Amino acid sequence: SEGHANLPTQLHNLALSLGKHFEHTGNVADISEAISLLQKSIQLTSDDHANLPTQLHNLGLSLGKHFEHTGNVADISEAISLLQKCIQLTSEGHANLPTQLHNLALSLGKHFEHTGNVADISEAISLLQKSIQLTSEGHASLPTKLYHLGNSLEKRFEHTKDAIDAHSAILNFRLASTSLSGSPSVKLYAAIHWAKSTMQIDQSQLLEAYNTAICLISQVADLDQTIKSRFTKLINISLLSTCAAAAAISFGQHSMALEWLEQGRCLVWRQINDLRTPVDDLYAYDRALADKIVQVSKDLESAGSRAELNIYTEDISLLTKISIQNEAHTHIKLAQEWEQLLTTVRSKPQFTHFLLPPSCSTLLKDLPKSGHVVVINSYGNHSDALILTSGKKNPLHIVLPQFTIRIADKLHHDLKVILHDSRVWMQEDWDTVSSRGSRRCKEGGITDILQQLWSSVVKPILNGLGYSKPLSNLPRIWWCVTGPLAFLPIHAAGIYKLSGSTAGICNKLSDFAVSSYIPNVSSLIKKTHNSHNINQEKVGLLMISQPDTPKLHPIPGTTQEVQMIQQLLSKFKIKHLCLESGDATVSRVNDEMDVFSCIHLACHAAQDTTNPLQSGFYLYDGRLDLSSIIRKNLAGADLAFLSACQTSTGDEKLSEEAVHLAGGMLAAGYQGVVATMWSIKDSYGPKLAEAFYKNLLIPKAEDETDSKRLSSDGAAQALHDATQEMRQILGDSESSLLTWVPFVHFGH
């Protein structure tokens, strides 16, 4: 009833639930209703009631959230007044006081961002300093408060240019990120701010800051989280490894740069490989130790999350006060236990690098014996190439001064415009005639992009490798690229507009090397180790053809495509099976994939960049998604040919994660993958596929058996030859380039 003694508490708790609902939905009506309920709860509460500070505090926080959504400065002004009154009503030694001071400081910081009044941010700094003084050493909330203090000092420095504030900000970011206790996520963001600040003020700490951040990445994105949640977190930190690598290179630490790129890139696909997270190998070795690692990791994150909770319910009991006083000791013990567990795990011979980046020496030692891996890092006003060659002790560094991140972004943008205008970018942009998305395009465009990639990126690298003339047997180059370069066709770099003076000169990458792409260096090493473990009984090709998938545009060329391949396989007496139209159900294809080492998918495809494991291939009765392929733990998977739309392009926000179907098939266990960067003409797909398998199946040695030729080992060369044959037929026009350039090889 209206006058019931419990009504204020009930209104207050309902408001908290609405506030939590708002955080998930973003529906302003929820937080508006929460504010109204809290205001009514306060009206029904006497001025001397013990719960009043709590109600004032939570109303202040709710108004702050409302301000973030609406920008109404009256909301944040009222929030500040309420939080100030809350603190006035709270005794000096009260356990909630540090949190109240912290939240008032954050509200003042929001007000400062709106008004630019330096008095606001100065008061916020004083409040944060007092909150930190009242927080026990080792408490899980301490890194969060130190982080916010660093942010506030940084904001004031931007206004006043007082160097003391800048150095104090760096100190607090450092203390937050190196704290034993607290949320790994908060510590990671503190480390990122530490690195950014020290880059501008005091570069002597730069490598230490980045090393701290890189080591924290694995804790944030690795252990025992869903794949979707890991990708969500990585959107915010995907550029960290490229920034860190650029810093290491600037200090001449090329091996460190490589190690940081390996640690910070492709985290999720690296874990998916062989259905393993970093702890799965440990589970097989010592289940109890693995369980403990996962539990302590969870406890560290949840302890930090609890400490960051800004809303609390009613006034605390004596028992809770005692519990809070003991929290600092618990958090310190938890952090110490984590370090001890890591030491224990790393003392085992096979786990010496558990949650650590692979060492440069290990990467170089285990590379393929021939060819080169070229890692390109683009950041700021230049790019760098690190060239890895088996038998070398250190990477070879080549500066690419003419290729900046801005140029890479522009080329990526230009390519998207060209593809859009040519109707070969989006899957839904189907031509009115039978096509996997292609129309004739205007002359000029992609040739300029390929020429700039040649002159600014590829030619300097080839010069550094000493490739002045083509070799009779072209060497392999595995390209491992970062940022917007992940969306550019480096493999086709060259000069295609030939004048009389340049005709006959070798000025294309394809003249000098056979190109492949890899998500990271570790993936190539893993594929190299596993490349000869294919069960000969499984050697064969499963072909999927979907010329008339229900509710999707017809692509009748897929029938011709698989018929041509079938004829070749029959000629060489290689095991094969073709499932077309209604025969290619999700269940049937799933079963047959266990029987064949190779798969050819001539069908529509879909990429879900918000949840990459839901990406997949459209079959007759539904979508075969990556998650079901990966769950199969395909033993003996070898080669996948994805004759579908846009199977090697990914999410721009996560270019460091290789979020595309080709990367997913590598993660599922396939040694090599042929894919496309954009959609292709239905008439040319079958011709290139036929040329690819012809080149793959032609005997390379007298004693080579037919079955041995159907292997990922020769796939890169076979694709190289097939695309060059198509180029010889079609010429070097814009439409020709758009036809063969999209075909790419990934993996071993």
Automatic annotation (TrEMBL):
Pfam families (alphabetical): CHAT
Limits of the CHAT domain: 448-747
Domain of life: Eukaryota
InterPro entries: CHAT_dom, TPR-like_helical_dom_sf
PANTHER family recorded: RAPSYN-RELATED, TETRATRICOPEPTIDE REPEAT PROTEIN 28
Official protein name in the record: CHAT domain-containing protein
